[in-house]
């Protein structure tokens, strides 16, 4: 007994899918970093520019315009903020990891993130703050990031399938 037939085999164009996936995720990371910076860096009060400058590494990497200013009598401490801040976007395509980071070691910014220095003064504080903390910028940034992340839609893998027919028999 002999059987004949035609089989349809799906074939995924994995290279095209991964290329488009990378484009979608890269664009999503840039939008997420923008939203995070708008919710965090733009809300930090500025006196000498040090606190805002800690965000500059990430802002520059995603081309986010972050204006930094000093109060009339304040010294320019942007370079101090740059030394105490770090951040950027990292992509590991092999592992499928896309993320951005921000960190700071600027003590008064860390203190004001969690405390109202006018009520519970930082030992290094030399004057009352016009805009005391707690800033809670990390929580505000998280909310902004999750809003963007929840809107990301990955490419439909079915659009990258091709059918191939095989005759048997």
Largest sheet: 2 strands, antiparallel
Counting DSSP E segments of at least 2 residues, the number of strands comes to 4
Q: State the distance separating the first and last CA atoms.
A: 11 Å
Q: Which descriptor suits the 3D outline?
A: rod-shaped
Strand order of the largest sheet: 1-4
Please trace the helix and strand order, writing H or E for each element.
EHHHHEEHHE
Low-confidence stretches are: none
> What Rg do the Cα atoms give?
25 Å
Mean pLDDT reading: 89
Would you kindly provide a written description of the structure presented here, covering whatever features stand out?
The structure is a single chain. It is built from 6 helices and 4 strands. It has 169 residues and is of the alpha+beta class. The strands form 2 sheets. A two-stranded antiparallel ribbon has the order 1-4. Strand 2 and strand 3 form a beta hairpin. It is rod-shaped and about 95 Å long.
Descriptive key words:
4 strands, two-stranded antiparallel ribbon, alpha+beta, two-stranded antiparallel sheet, 169 residues, 6 helices, 19% strand, single chain
Give the structure's gist in a few sentences.
With 169 residues, the chain is an alpha+beta fold. The chain has six helices and four strands. The chain starts with a strand and ends with a strand.
Question: What's the SSE blueprint?
Answer:
Elements: E1 5-12, H1 14-39, H2 50-53, H3 56-61, H4 78-83, E2 85-92, E3 97-104, H5 107-114, H6 137-149, E4 161-168
